[in-house]
Amino acid sequence: MTPLIRGPRLSLYRFAPRDAAGFMAMNADPRVVQHTGDRPFADEADALRFIQHYDHYQRHGFGRWSLYTHEGEYAGFCGLRRAAGEVDLGYRLPWRLWGRGLATEAAQLALQLGFERFDLGSIVGRARCANPGSIRVLEKVGMGLEGAFTEEGHDWLQYRIRSHEWTGLPFLR
Asked: What is the mean pLDDT of residues 112-137?
C-alpha cells in the first residue's frame, strides 16, 4: 500500500480494513475519546463497517487518513473533513503515543495535503478548552485562534489557518 504522504516518522494512508483492530482499540480507551464525544465501537467488526462505509474520499477527494509509523505500527488517524461549508483538521492517536510530537507531525502532513494537493483556501481546527494537548498541536502547526463557542455543554476553541499563511513543513526545512 502506497502512502499519500510520508513524514520523518509517520505515513498517511486511506482508511483500509487493516486499520480496524487498531481503530477499535484506540476508540475503546476512555482517555482517547474523552474530548471527542464519540462512542467506542462495539467490536472490531463495527470498526470495519465504519471504514468500509467511509465515503469522504469519494465525496470530497480527501478525508481522514490512517497513520502508521515507519515501523508499521498503527498510530491513529489525522486528516481533513468537509462539514458545514468548512474543512476541519482532526487527529486522534492511541494514548501510548501521546506526548511524542506525532499528532503535530500528522497535522502538518494533513495541512500540506490540504493546501498543496487539494488547493484549499483555509482549514479550521477545533479543540475543547479542557484539552490543552490538542490546543498545543493546533498552535504548533500555525493555526491562529479565531474564537470560542459552547456546544453540548462543552467549551471549545476554534483555530484557523489560510493557504497564504501556510509556510510549509517545519521539519522539512
From this structure: 96
Q: Could you tell me the CA-to-CA distances from 99 to 7, 68, 93, 125, 137 in Å, in that order?
A: 17, 16, 10, 19, 10
H helices present in the chain, as ranges:
20-27, 30-33, 44-52, 56-60, 102-112, 132-140
Residue 128 has pLDDT above 70, yes or no: yes
Q: Mind listing the domains of the chain with CATH numbers?
A: 5-172 (3.40.630.30)
Q: Measuring CA to CA, how many Å separate 110 from each of 34, 90, 105, 159? A: 23, 9, 9, 15
How many Cβ atoms are within 10 Å of 155's Cβ, its own excluded? 11
Torsion angles phi and psi, residue 172, rounded to 5: -100, -5
Please, is 38 exposed, middle or buried when counting C-beta atoms within 10 Å of its C-beta (0-12, 13-18, 19+)? exposed
Query: What is the pTM (predicted TM-score) of this model?
Result: 0.94
